[in-house]
Amino acid sequence: MSRYHLWAVITAFLALVSPAQSQSDRMRGRCDPNRQELRMPPLNALGDSARLASILGGGANPRARLVFVELRFGKDGRLREVDVTRGASSSGRAAIRDSLRSLLRPIGISSIDVVVNVVRFNGSGQIRVFTATTTCRPEAYPTAETRSLISRIQRDAPQTNVRRDVTVEFILEADGQVSDAWVEFGSSYPRVDELALDIIKAQRFVPAMVGEVPVAAFIRQSVKF
Predict the structure, then answer these.
(1) Which of 56, 69, 93, 222 is the least buried, fewest Cβ under 10 Å from its Cβ?
(2) Of 205, 37, 41, whose CA–CA distance to 135 is shortest?
(3) How far apart are CA 158 and CA 190, in angstroms?
(4) Is pTM beyond 0.85 here?
(5) Which segments of the chain have a pLDDT < 70?
(6) Which of 68, 69, 59 lies closest to 89, judged by CA?
(7) How many whole angstroms separate alpha carbon 160 and alpha carbon 191?
(8) Between β-strands 139-141 and 114-121, what pairing exists: parallel, antiparallel or unpaired?
């Protein structure tokens, strides 16, 4: 599944971005100068949005939080692959794949293959489009609030031999703010799961960019206690 992964180990979390790094140094590390020509395709450029909503809604598993679809376009802008990675039954995945192949339009010509993710949030029916192929990847950096939370976790988290990893997914908006976050795989300790969410919401981010335009991103982050 194509999405951004930001791996945060609690004991090393404060070293994610060194305060001594300049903004230009960080930009060089997270940006690919060969992708400056990329452009983010809007939802209505992919095909009829009402039909797209009907296709994803019809194939969705109502018990799943979301339907996640990965679209791969070739350099010529034409659709190459459709992969429904979660949120639908086997028959639902097949129906979505077949319907999207007949619906989706080509996107702009590019020097590289482009991966686009279409996500339907089943609770609200909202559909979002994210590009997994970016000029600059998103980046997290710690704040005083995250330092405080980490200190609290190190002091208060239950001491056990059980592995305590929490996988959090969230939407990082183009302004660098987290608009929604949820625990995808918990630790079996509700308080630890809550603290993992607190950390994500307390972080600050440099957003992903396509060309020179900041864009929203679908992110999975593993917080390891």
Answers:
(1) 222
(2) 37
(3) 11
(4) no
(5) 1-28, 153-154, 156-163
(6) 59
(7) 14
(8) unpaired
In angstroms, the CA 10 to CA 151 distance is 9
Distance CA 211, CA 205 (A): 18
The number of residues in the chain equals 225
Any residues with CB less than 8 A from the CB of 106 and at least 6 apart, and which?
A: 73, 76, 77, 78, 79
Cα separation, 167 vs 185, whole angstroms? 5
Please enumerate in sequence order all residues whose Cβ is within 8 A of that of 216, keeping only pairs 6 or more positions apart, or say none: 128, 130, 171, 172, 173, 174, 207, 208
- CB-CB contact of 193 with 183 (8 Å): yes
Question: Can you tell me whether residue 46 is helix, strand or coil?
Answer: helix
Residue 22: the pLDDT is: 40
Report how far Cα 33 is from the mean position of its chain's Cα atoms. 22
Structure tokens at 138: 């998103």
CB 131 within 8 A of CB 40: yes
Question: What does each C-alpha distance from 111 to 31, 42, 131, 134, 217 come to in angstroms?
Answer: 16, 19, 15, 13, 22
Instruction: Specify whether the CB–CB gap between 100 and 116 falls below 8 A.
Output: no
C-alpha angle 203/207/210, rounded to 5°? 165
Q: Residue 150: its pLDDT value, please?
A: 76
Euclidean distance between CA atoms 31 and 206, whole angstroms: 12
Say how many Å lie between the first and final Cα of the chain, rounded: 24
* Tokens, residue 12: 């090393």
Quickly tell me which residue has 């704040």 as its tokens: 143
- State CA 117 to chain mean position distance: 9
